[in-house]
Specification:
This protein is an alpha+beta fold. The chain has a single domain (about 5-90), classed as HU Protein, Chain A (Irregular). It is about 40% helix and about 30% strand. It contains three helices and five strands; from the N terminus they run H-H-E-E-E-E-E-H. The chain has helices at about 5-15, 20-40, 85-90; strands at about 45, 50-55, 60, 70, 75-80. The strands form two sheets. Strands 1-2-5 form a three-stranded antiparallel β-sheet. Helix 1 packs across helix 2 (about 20-40). The longest helix has 20 residues, at about 20-40. Keywords: DNA recombination, DNA-binding, Transcription, Transcription regulation, Translation regulation. It comes from Palleronia marisminoris. Belongs to the bacterial histone-like protein family. InterPro entries: Hist_DNA-bd, Histone-like_DNA-bd_CS, IHF-like_DNA-bd_dom_sf, IHF_beta. Heterodimer of an alpha and a beta chain.
Length: about 90
């Protein structure tokens, strides 16, 4: 499902909300998740999962074309861990 499909589904399920209101709600939720993660915080949505940030240390990688050693800088990457309810539904339990 893409963002526009999510917005349309929420708008269809809530006829008292306008499409523009739903777009603002979805954007606000995503922005708050992004903001929290940028500050290094963990975001947990009960039953769905948790978003967090993991630090990857600097290392020496390889250029796959030439095999030459290439330095790779330290970076922070988003990480998602599915919640128990989501895992159970995916596995048919």
């Amino acid at each position: 499902m893409i963002r526009s499909e999510l917005i349309q589904k929420i708008a269809d399920d809530n006829p008292h909300l306008t499409q523009r209101d739903v777009e603002r709600i979805v954007s606000t939720i995503f922005e708050e998740i992004i903001h929290a993660m940028c500050e290094g915080n963990r975001v947990e949505l009960r039953g769905f999962g948790a978003f967090s940030v993991k630090k990857r240390d600097a290392r020496v990688g390889r250029n796959p074309r030439t095999g030459e050693a290439v330095p790779v800088d330290e970076k922070h990457v988003p990480f998602f861990k599915a919640g128990k309810l989501l895992r159970d539904r995916l596995n048919g339990d």
